[in-house]
Amino acid sequence: MSDTPTWRSAQEAFWAGDFGSDYIQRNRSQALLAANLDFFAKALRQARGLGSCIEFGANIGMNLQALRLLFPQMAASAIEINPDAAAQLRQLVGNANVHQGSILDFAPQPAGQQWDLVFTKGVLIHINPELLPQVYDKMVAASRRWVLVAEYYNPQPVAIAYRGHTDRLFKRDFAGELLQRHPALRLVDYGFAYRHDPNFPQDDINWFLLEKH
């Protein structure tokens, strides 16, 4: 019997394989950690009661490292599809609860477990658009109160070539779709992080902080 996972989309196989492993070295630096500290300090300034979080698509944990510095007592969990990234994440983010596998297959244990903050940062853009509703539902179900979405924004869905590959990067109004699909969410804050910021550059990311009622 083969141990090779059966993925539901080409995008999952893409990130679980060699491309996802190569991505690790391009996204690991002290400068990125500093930029992430600035990013989350701004994006979460309206959030309260952040005792726990889970990141959907955490890679090696650069975002979680920043959050741990901002909120030292925060209990961190993560979902990561690439086994190499998940292994490094376990080392870099001490005591993190790491779920290695696809977001689409994620099921909290114990069932019904929730976190104060559920977030993505540069992950929804890489998910097959037809599967996004399932991811939205999992994010909202996992959230006790806050949902943070930090992605490339576009008013209309578009596909963009990504490092020589097609159908691997999609821009759209992720937060707007979440709000429409889940009326219990409300928009609390939003902003933009610019790649030409002189001190803390990000990757032209729009972020949206949503609260669950």
Short précis:
The protein contains seven helices and nine strands. With about 210 residues, the chain is of the alpha/beta class.
Please outline the major beta sheet.
7 strands, mixed
The pLDDT mean sits at 90
State the distance separating the first and last CA atoms.
Answer: 46 Å
Poorly predicted runs of 5 or more residues: none
Any descriptors?
globular; seven-stranded mixed β-sheet; two-stranded antiparallel ribbon; alpha/beta; 7 helices; 213 residues
Description:
- The chain has 213 residues and is α/β, with parallel strands linked by helices.
- The protein is built from 7 helices and 9 strands, in the order αααβαβαββαβββαββ.
- It has helices at 10-16, 18-26, 30-43, 62-70, 83-92, 132-142, 174-181, and strands at 52-56, 75-80, 97-100, 115-121, 143-151, 158-159, 170-171, 185-193, 205-212.
- The strands form 2 sheets. It has a 7-stranded mixed sheet with strand order 3-2-1-4-5-9-8, with helices on both faces. It has a two-stranded antiparallel ribbon with strand order 6-7.
- α3 (30-43) packs across α4.
- It is globular and about 40 Å long.
- 35% of the residues are buried.
- The mean pLDDT is 90.
